[in-house]
Amino acid sequence: MFAFDGGAGFDTVDYSTSDAAVNVEIRPGISLAGTGGDAQGDTLLNIEKVIGSAFNDTFTAAAISYATFEGGAGDDVYFVNGGGVTIIEQEGGGNDEIRVSWNTHTMAANVERMTYTGTVAFTGYGNATDNIITGGIGNDLLFGGGGADQFFGGAGMDTVSYDDSTVGVSINLKTGVSSGIAMGDIYNSIEAITGSRFNDIFIGSSAALALNGGTGIDMVSYESSDSAVTIDLKTNVNAGDAAGDTFAGIEIFQGSNFADTFLGSTANDNFVGGAGADVFDGREGIDTVWYANNATAVNINLQTGVSQGGDAEGDVFINVESLIGTNFNDTLTGNAAANGLEGGLGNDVIYGGDGNDVIYGSLYTQLGPFAVNVAAGGPQADLLYGGNGDDIIVGAPDDRGTQAFGEAGNDTITVVHGVANGGEGNDVLTGTGTGFSLFGGAGADKLILQNGGSAFGGEGDDTYTVTSGRLVTIQDDGVSQGDTLVLTNINAQQLLFDRVGNDLYVHQYSVFEGQTPDEGVRLKDWFAGSATMDVIKTADGQYIGLPTSNDAFNMFG
């Protein structure tokens, strides 16, 4: 039995040799008696650290901003009433518990359990081991950290959060099989779950929960549901396994394998129906229905209501503006609205219809769990039709065999290796790869050649912009003269002109007599009546006039 008074400095009392458990308390300015083992009858004053025994010790830090406890072996219990308490436990040092009465605490390493004993809202952080974290009667916020954790919320509106995760989590509330730091976690009396700052997936169950995706692209799925669900994002009056669920920070909603009903919000919503004849009413906003995970091709017409193939069979679309196709050969048709249509992989046929549409031959929108490497999908021979309206059409990353038609309106079309045909209107056509063909059609078109390909302007005062160092071919059989060639990589003093057959080459580097240039621009059939180019604008801003067809023979022949 000893009276310990550490005085100034950092002082330690060591009970590591005790043959029984000890129970000690540190309180500022008060000499308190210990019990059990070697601590029986000892008083501690001005002591900053206590080392426990190899048995089930009890440590208390009351109204204190400093204390260090080292538990050793055994199932130790720590009572913590304030901040600044340091707990040291070794790996495998028993099944230890922290009992906290103040409103926030982070578990020390190698401590397994934390229980909140206070009455206000509590915020608790677990550690990297398997924890059991128990809240109180308030609205608690619990973080498990790593490990397979068990959460007991108690009374109140309690939330488990994965905001501290460094990767996205997948939480299956139906089967309990989860991933990321949620792997192995179990929820008891938990009313809300918040995801990470990355792309999360929540698979719902019959339990009513408030699901918050946090940042990232997050999805709530009811694909494991045993019956149809209704999701109403405006009223939160949901049905089936979705009954009682509320949503925040969720970008994608997936239904069951039955006939589901999706009712959108005022924002831009994303729906995945699954099997069954589903009803989608997007309400306000730009709303999208996804078939990216469908096992077969789909045929969907937003104008006529036709919906065929796999998960799309029998689906009904109301106030739906956008569609995402499958990895197979889909047919997608828009309506009079401004549609967004994406074919996904496969050789798709897409019709924009009326309205100012945005059409992608491949999957452009990389959204959470539906993000794919479209560049690895191989060539896509799509047929893309803009229809009426000022459309934007973009071919797949490997669009060899693709043909894109703007049709009516002032369209913007981009292909890599494919064919772009602007049709009527003042169109902007861009080729970015090799082997592409750009056809301006009627109107004052802008044709941009960024690599190796061909351009044909047609009627109207067209502008050809060449940014490539490779040889490109331009032919304009239009009646009017007034076309402009813009060279972004050749200055005026570098220009060379050579005739090869009926073609005029405008290039930069000299060639031997009889040799054909392999860079610059080939003006095809210039000397056979296609001399409609009126002026060249060079990289240094100079404008150089070109002769008419009749004079061309004299100038270059």
TrEMBL record:
<keyword id="KW-0106">Calcium</keyword>
<dbReference type="InterPro" id="IPR011049">
    <property type="entry name" value="Serralysin-like_metalloprot_C"/>
</dbReference>
<protein>
    <submittedName>
        <fullName>Hemolysin-type calcium-binding protein</fullName>
    </submittedName>
</protein>
<dbReference type="InterPro" id="IPR001343">
    <property type="entry name" value="Hemolysn_Ca-bd"/>
</dbReference>
<dbReference type="Pfam" id="PF00353">
    <property type="entry name" value="HemolysinCabind"/>
</dbReference>
<dbReference type="GO" id="GO:0005509">
    <property type="term" value="F:calcium ion binding"/>
</dbReference>
